[in-house]
Task: inverse folding
């Protein structure tokens, strides 16, 4: 069958693909340790799940307003004020089927054919594909590990053209864990605001911060920046609610309205039951989220220490999220067990088949010198998986 051009240029998400391969091997009875997952391994906290159950029991199973329940929008506005010091009205908020869907809506509402969208690399895998699906051109701008994987104002200024329409700023970052300071964001905003570039601020990992690092929400830099910013967040990562599919955007009114209209024709409202659960997540006790963070902090320490003890691997300590982006480029060109390691894909393949450890190759995030480890898995798995990698890599010659 002849597919549309837009479909021909798009592949499956590489993180999901690697995860699927690992699952397939597991099914065959092979004991695979997976560091590929992009979701907390905890259950949704009880009080949130109970709100979902109660919604079903009460028959709260019909259409809601397409852009989300007024009560949920109010809970989101209250959260944005409480946590981020931001004033939004319910009409500025669009609730969608996950933050991924919110981002898709933004691009649908904003991008015309040939518009450029800046994507600092390493980047979350779906940004570039979603830009392409909407007729835009991703302009990937490399960052450097020496700069903490953060975009500099100089590199940003060089990447702007008259066609630049928007930029993705993902803090804390997937896959690097980098968190921009207020000053760093201000310096970027000084370049962006005079050019009227829209900032798509992806803050889904905002609650996963370590070592006392403070989150600055891009929109909080001031009214001029807020007027150009679409804030993206959701409940997936903070409340272990990935399967419930609730994300949201808070945006300048005109853009929010356009997104709501698009959503009303594409998907209608996000799941009514999940919306009730999201209200409980945002308005309810935050201790379960803090407990998860405390556990992630312990795992991060073990993961970073373990990776740096493996010959050929090195990593910096991520400030946020639950990933470690490890430099594996020292191994490229080496032959292990008769297999030549040439790049992040051949290394990930090698470690999957020989060490039975699944990782996501860095090329998927726009940097082939690295692989991504997720520590959203048990301490036992971290120890076991890292030991397996160490065992095979010490055979390097
Ligand atoms: C950077 C980033 N943004 C957005 C999302 C989407 O989250 P969700 O659609 O589950 O809300 C993810 C999920 O992996 C992510 O890593």
Result:
């Amino acid at each position: 069958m002849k597919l549309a051009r837009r479909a021909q240029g798009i592949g499956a998400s590489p993180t999901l693909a690697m995860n699927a391969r690992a699952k397939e091997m597991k099914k065959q009875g092979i004991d695979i340790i997976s560091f590929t997952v992009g979701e907390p391994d905890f259950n949704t906290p009880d009080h949130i799940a109970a709100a979902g159950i109660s919604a079903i029991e009460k028959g709260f199973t019909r259409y809601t307003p397409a852009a989300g329940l007024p009560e949920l929008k109010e809970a989101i506005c209250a959260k944005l004020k409480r946590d981020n010091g931001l004033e939004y009205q319910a009409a500025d908020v669009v609730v969608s089927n996950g933050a991924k869907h919110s981002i898709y809506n933004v691009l649908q509402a904003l991008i015309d054919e040939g518009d450029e969208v800046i994507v600092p690399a390493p980047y979350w895998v779906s940004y570039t594909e979603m830009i392409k699906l909407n007729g835009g051109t991703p302009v990937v701008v490399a960052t450097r590990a020496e700069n903490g994987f953060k975009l500099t104002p100089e590199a940003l200024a060089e990447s702007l053209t008259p066609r630049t329409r928007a930029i993705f700023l993902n803090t804390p970052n997937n896959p690097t864990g980098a968190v921009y300071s207020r000053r760093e964001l201000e310096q970027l905003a000084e370049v962006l605001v005079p050019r009227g570039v829209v900032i798509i601020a992806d803050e889904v990992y905002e609650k996963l911060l370590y070592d006392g690092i403070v989150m600055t929400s891009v929109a909080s830099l001031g009214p001029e920046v807020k007027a150009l910013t679409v804030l993206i967040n959701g409940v997936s990562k903070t409340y272990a609610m990935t399967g419930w599919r609730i994300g949201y955007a808070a945006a300048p009114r005109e853009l929010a309205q356009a997104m709501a209209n698009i959503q009303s024709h594409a998907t209608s409202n996000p799941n009514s039951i999940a919306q009730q659960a999201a209200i409980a997540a945002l308005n309810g006790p935050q201790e379960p989220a803090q407990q998860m963070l405390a556990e992630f902090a312990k795992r991060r320490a073990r993961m970073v220490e373990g990776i740096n003890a493996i010959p050929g691997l090195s990593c910096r300590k991520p400030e946020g999220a639950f990933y470690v982006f490890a430099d594996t480029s020292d191994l490229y060109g080496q032959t292990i067990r008769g297999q030549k390691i040439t790049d992040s894909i051949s290394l990930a393949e090698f470690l999957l088949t020989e060490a039975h450890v699944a990782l996501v190759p860095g090329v998927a995030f726009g940097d082939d010198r690295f692989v991504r480890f997720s520590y959203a898995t048990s301490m036992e798995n971290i120890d076991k998986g890292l030991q397996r990698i160490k065992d095979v890599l010490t055979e390097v010659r």
